[in-house]
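Continuing the series of single-chain predictions for the mutant panel. This is the parent chain; the variants come on the following pages.
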Amino acid sequence: MTEVIETQEAPAAATNRYGVPAILLHWTSVALIVFVGALGLCFGLIPRSSRLFWINIHAVVGLAVLILAVLRIVWRLRHGAPDYPEGTPALTRRLSGPAHWLLYALMVVLPLVGIVAYVWHARVFDFGLFKVNFGIASNKPVYEAAEEIHEFLAFSLFGLAGLHGLAALWHRFVRKDGLMERMLPWGRA
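Parent structure:
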């Protein structure tokens, strides 16, 4: 008579840190958004002779932000967020998810509207090694409307990201509850 031995897998240990890919995607997104946002705010200060070059840089980096946002969404859907530290307030738990998803939505919609503004300005994406020309004629009503929406969305992203950063700092330095350490490269589990 053969005996059947059942093996039970040990339950997965709760994790309270984001994984390395999520941390890299987060901080790379932060750096690119700060760069592209600062560049966008400085367009009026850039001499006309070099403005088109910097507008192209803004557009190409914006495309990178879009790609990173899509990767972040896919990663988040597949891996979820880590557990909250013990004692995390209920309000934080309720607002965290919607705030993150709104940030992701802005990081997707903002560059898409920027693409509309860029393309209907009859501009060509110059990636250095190759160019992408959609062959669309300049259409002032379309690109002006898209630029206004793009600017509104940019300030919305800056505002929400600023609140997100302030909340993280509050958790780190006031509550000292370990919530921010979940996303820091040097944080502890």
